Amino acid sequence: MAAEPASDLEFRAAEPEKGSPRPLRALASGGGSMCLEHTLPGEAAFDYNTISISANYLLERTKHRPAIGIVCGSGLGSLVDHLKEREAFPYEKIPNFPVSTVAGHDGQVVFGLLNGVPVMCMKGRFHSYEGYPLWKTAMPIRVMKLVGVNSVIVTNAAGGINDKYHVGDVMLIKDHINIPGFAGNSPLVGKNDENFGPRFPGMSNAYDKQLRQEAKSVVKEMGIEESVHEGVYVMLGGPSYETVAELRLLRLLGADAVGMSTVAEVVVARHCGMRVFAFSLVTNKCIMEWDSDEEANHEEVIAAANARKHHLQELVGRMAARMAQ
Ligand SMILES: O=P(O)(O)O[C@@H]1C[C@H](O)[C@@H](CO)O1
């Protein structure tokens, strides 16, 4: 007979299916609904030394020294398919790195030149619904930091709440609503590591104004203004898509698009002083009416991302070139 956990601290969440990430640390009970893991008081979630090991592994094996990082959202891995002088490292091989378990997220760190600019890319990201604590979903951002990255481009697939948004549109993110954060679930929970940043980082300028201006000018150059908006991204835990009532609530809160990622990465990036440019690809229109028979699904998310990949590759490439100046 399986032994009962002796206390809440011995309970462990199921591991994500693919690969074998390090065992989860002790869990505290009674956290928010998506809070799979809290670190113990005084314990740093991902300390400088642990992150240094991952960063050094990469630095010892790549000739590139990028200052720009890119996180690819669902179905958006092709954003980095055209890098020159590519060097790819599967997540499984990088010490202390989690592994991707979601369709549309390949699971490689890819270095290379994008329009001649050295970049470090996450081809596949981590989500809390895979079973990872938020600090682990955002851990690659700290690895980027120690590799030398000072600006990140964060992308995601999202559902369009704003009724002016259509499938295939891009939303430049001007702000976010951190729903897990409302319940105290933050990637920065635990002892603060001052090597990375302050205990209480500000978030009112999370999405760099100048980079948003640059993006608008790129969008104009590309002639795609009609399908590009600027708006507010809201993060939920997933993996279930939202109910109609939830979506109506999120609309009332001021959200324009909804997804299950990005925010933890942005919080960690800002904590360690990186500049952030982020956008959502609207892969589906959120279902706001109770009498609708439609239902959101991941296949349509991937298909919509695939259909827009050329525009998005160009947007990211042009932004990287400007950010490098
Ligand atoms: O990694 P992102 O945020 O792009 O992926 C979105 C959110 C879920 O992971 C998935 C749902 O279809 O797409």
Automatic annotation (TrEMBL):
Which residues take part in binding a purine D-ribonucleoside?
Answer: E242, N284
EC identifiers of the protein:
2.4.2.1
Presence of the UniProt keyword Glycosyltransferase in the record: yes
Q: Which reaction does it catalyse?
A: 2'-deoxyguanosine + phosphate = 2-deoxy-alpha-D-ribose 1-phosphate + guanine; inosine + phosphate = alpha-D-ribose 1-phosphate + hypoxanthine; 2'-deoxyinosine + phosphate = 2-deoxy-alpha-D-ribose 1-phosphate + hypoxanthine; guanosine + phosphate = alpha-D-ribose 1-phosphate + guanine
Region of interest (Disordered), ranges: 1-24
Annotated membrane-spanning segments are: none
Q: Where is the composition biased (Basic and acidic residues)?
A: 9-20
Q: Which residues bind phosphate?
A: S74, H105, R125, F126, H127, A157, S261
Query: Mind telling me which GO cellular component terms the entry cites?
Result: cytoplasm
Q: Per the UniProt entry, what are the Gene Ontology biological process annotations, in alphabetical order?
A: nucleoside metabolic process
Its keywords, alphabetically, are:
Glycosyltransferase, Transferase
Tree of life domain: Eukaryota
**Domain (Nucleoside phosphorylase): residue spans on this chain:** 68-319
Please name the GO terms that the record assigns under molecular function. Answer: purine-nucleoside phosphorylase activity
Q: In which pathway does it act?
A: Purine metabolism; purine nucleoside salvage
Describe its function.
Answer: The purine nucleoside phosphorylases catalyze the phosphorolytic breakdown of the N-glycosidic bond in the beta-(deoxy)ribonucleoside molecules, with the formation of the corresponding free purine bases and pentose-1-phosphate.
The family this protein is said to belong to: Belongs to the PNP/MTAP phosphorylase family.
This protein's name: Purine nucleoside phosphorylase
What lineage is on file?
Answer: Eukaryota, Metazoa, Ecdysozoa, Arthropoda, Crustacea
